[in-house]
Amino acid sequence: MTSAALEILGVGLGILGWGGGILACGLPMWQVSAFIDVNIVVAQTIWEGLWMNCVVQSTGQMQCKVYDSILALQPEVQAGRALTVIVALLGLVALMVTVVGAQCTNCIRPSKMKSRIVMAGGAIYILCGVLVLVPLCWFANIVISDFYDPTVPPSKKREMGAALYIGWAATALLLFGGCLICCCSCSQRDETSFPVKYSAPRRPTSNGEYDKKNYV
């Protein structure tokens, strides 16, 4: 019963992490303008994401534009697009596989195969967390390197946006949820593989009494 509750918790964390990864993918705030030096007071803020860039005026008006050419994008943007889309698809697969093999469902009878299926779902959640982490760290490394690079003009310097922090939180949820599911599947496998021995029924003798060998 405890392993089933932990398994449900792991699935819930995986779903939250999956949703957070999709949210981070769609947000345009992967890189934002850095207000430093002569760029402290500006009339607009620039947001740059995987799919579009936005310009936010000091009056509150915002204008967004989708990137015109995919081939003209930076390598980190192209890789981020590909990996986050893969994560969105793999997250759905992980959810379906985990639900099929979960202890609270009757899609498959309790057996070693059922525990292996739910372990596969947990492994896919872990893979999703790793795939989300790659573009996040790539972007963070570029932003930090350009920020401290003296050859980059202040107007071109960027800071890490909210999408990166949301993505890191989603990564933690995916990894923790996947590990929790895998641990519960291991305990489920141990329970199903534990041999059960039954004692032979005692048979009465011809005179109606039980045989003495039935007693220890």
From TrEMBL:
GO terms for molecular function: structural molecule activity. The chain crosses the membrane at residues 7-30, 82-102, 123-144, 164-184. Its main location: other. GO terms for cellular component: bicellular tight junction; plasma membrane. Pfam families: PMP22_Claudin. It is a multi-pass membrane protein. Keywords: Cell junction, Cell membrane, Membrane, Tight junction, Transmembrane, Transmembrane helix. It is found in: Cell junction, Tight junction; Cell membrane. Claudins function as major constituents of the tight junction complexes that regulate the permeability of epithelia. Belongs to the claudin family. This is Claudin. It comes from Hemiprocne comata.
